[in-house]
Specification:
By secondary structure, the protein is an alpha/beta fold. Helices cover 55% and strands 7% of the residues. Strands 3-2-1-4-5-6-7-8 form an eight-stranded mixed sheet, sandwiched between helices. Helix 9 packs across helix 13, helix 9 runs antiparallel to helix 15 and helix 12 crosses helix 13. The protein is globular, with a radius of gyration of 26 Å.
Length: 488
């Protein structure tokens, strides 16, 4: 009865509606309420809502809604409704069910991992109806949702002033108190930036996993020894959330004294955002090689049974590491740092290319600030990216910024020693070696693509440009000499 009285009292007064009583929706609602914003909660499964109101939300200014119509009736106008439902058809179904209960200027927000083309389409469709729409990239998992996520909103610019106070209150903050949330850009830009964030996350995780395997199999370290290595790395330029949790994982033992990491099956899962990032890079013609290798490494891990059989018949190198282990650990730290720079370089190249294609006005330094706290890839490293774009907003490539140029140059010899050692010992490091290959390719004034173009022209008359003629002029050569058959 008490809850019914609360519902009557707060009717039409709630600041925001939340659809989806899963972990993320529940925690975001608690976060909002803690910062002074009242919430109306709806879920198709009304049992979840009742349990939530009787549990974590008990005594708080969070009320339940029995239907979408009821939800709309409980909100202040213009209505602000956030959907935390699975990406894809569920979002479209939710929107269609809501439309009869909305009025012009109401705001719909999608906080799931939607594919950015869907967000672009939805933004345009709802704007045509006089509504406002925001696709919000949300990073930080359930803990971030509760305590402060990184948030990447984009869509209808006119909606931002109405949701900015809520989002910037609940998001993570930098050490200087800056909110890790700001307006990203038009239509699907927010979900695109979140997608690239996830791609970089794939890359960071793979690089760390390769360092772990190098330490374990290449240098013969125990989990306890590796824990100490990662603890030291966390104090330096590699300081980040992912290094921190890796340190903790390596030290964790269960009640029986077992090192849990060694009991986990080596098959990695993925939800698709890394794959989307790679596909977007292919569409944009960007060399997102490191993140691509990270995605493919997960695919390779999934064929566990095949790998086990192959390990019985395919031989590994016989050599063992016999050098200075401490020096090699230091080399590995520098190689990991340099590879991380490449990962972000490629991610930002993709952001810039997409912005040109889709007409987005992205604030690249601002994106780094958004990622400084709350999200999975948060690290001190991101502050340097923001500084680079603050100094040169037109920066085309992170590698050419003074700080990153010097960092990669100084790490280069260590980087090469690690890759050569890994190859000699048979320790796979696809992302790390791919990062080095990208660096060598990007710094090359001339690549062997001249031969590639000659081959294409030979078999397909695809033509080519010449170094001694202006760009834009194309030529074709009759490569087959008189009397000689192509089928020879």
């Amino acid at each position: 009865m008490k809850r019914e009285n609360q519902r009557t009292h707060t009717m039409k007064e709630q600041h925001i509606g939340m659809i989806g009583c899963g972990v993320m929706g529940r925690n975001l609602a608690l976060n909002m309420e803690r910062h002074g914003f009242s919430v109306a909660m709806y879920d198709l499964d009304q049992k979840k809502v009742r349990q939530y109101l009787d549990g974590p939300a008990a005594g708080k200014n969070i009320i339940g809604a029995a239907s979408l119509e009821d939800l709309a009736d409980k909100l202040r106008k213009p209505r602000r409704i956030m959907m935390m439902v699975p990406a894809g058809r569920a979002v479209d179904d939710c929107i269609q069910s809501l439309l009869p209960h909305l009025e012009k200027e109401d705001i719909l927000m999608d906080g799931g991992n939607s594919h950015f083309p869907d967000t672009t389409r939805r933004t345009r469709e709802l704007e045509a109806r006089g509504l406002r729409y925001i696709g919000v990239g949300v990073s930080g998992g359930e803990e971030g949702a509760l305590l402060g996520p990184s948030m990447m909103p984009a869509g209808s610019p006119a909606a931002w002033p109405d949701v900015k106070p809520i989002f910037q209150a609940i998001c993570a903050k930098t050490e200087a108190g800056e909110p890790c949330c700001d307006w990203v850009g038009e239509d699907g830009a927010g979900h695109f930036v979140k997608m690239v964030h996830n791609g970089i996350e794939y890359g960071d995780m793979q690089l760390i996993c390769e360092a772990y395997q190098f330490l374990k199999e290449g240098l013969g370290m125990t989990n306890a020894e590796m824990h100490q290595v990662f603890a030291q790395w966390q104090e330096g330029e590699l300081n980040s959330y992912l290094i921190e949790i890796t340190r903790d994982i390596l030290a964790y033992k269960d009640a029986g004294g077992n090192e849990v990491l060694d009991l986990i099956l080596d098959t990695a899962g993925q939800k698709g955002t890394g794959k989307w990032t790679v596909i977007a890079a292919l569409d944009q013609g960007q060399a997102l090689t490191l993140i691509g290798e990270a995605v493919f490494a997960r695919c390779l891990s999934a064929i566990k049974e095949e790998r086990v059989e192959a390990s019985k018949i395919l031989k590994s190198p016989a050599g063992r590491f016999e050098g200075n282990r401490d020096a090699m650990v230091n080399d590995l730290r520098r190689a990991l740092y340099a590879s991380k720079i490449i990962s972000y370089t490629q991610g930002y190249q993709l952001l810039r290319s997409a912005a040109e294609t889709y007409g987005w006005h992205l604030n690249y330094g601002g994106i780094a600030l958004i990622w400084r706290g709350g999200c999975i890839i948060r690290s001190v490293f991101l502050g340097k990216i923001k500084e680079a774009f603050d100094q040169n907003p037109q920066l085309h490539c992170l590698l050419t910024a003074p700080f990153f140029r010097e960092a990669v140059t100084s790490a280069q010899e260590s980087w090469r020693r690690v890759v050569m050692t890994a190859v000699r010992l048979g320790v796979p490091m696809p992302a790390t070696s791919s990062a080095l290959a990208y660096y060598d390719g990007y710094r090359s004034a001339r690549l062997p693509a001249n031969l590639l173009q000659a081959q294409r022209d030979y078999f397909g008359a695809h033509t080519y440009e010449r170094v001694d003629r202006p760009r834009g002029q194309f030529f074709h050569t009759q490569w087959v000499q008189a009397g000689r058959s192509l089928e020879s």
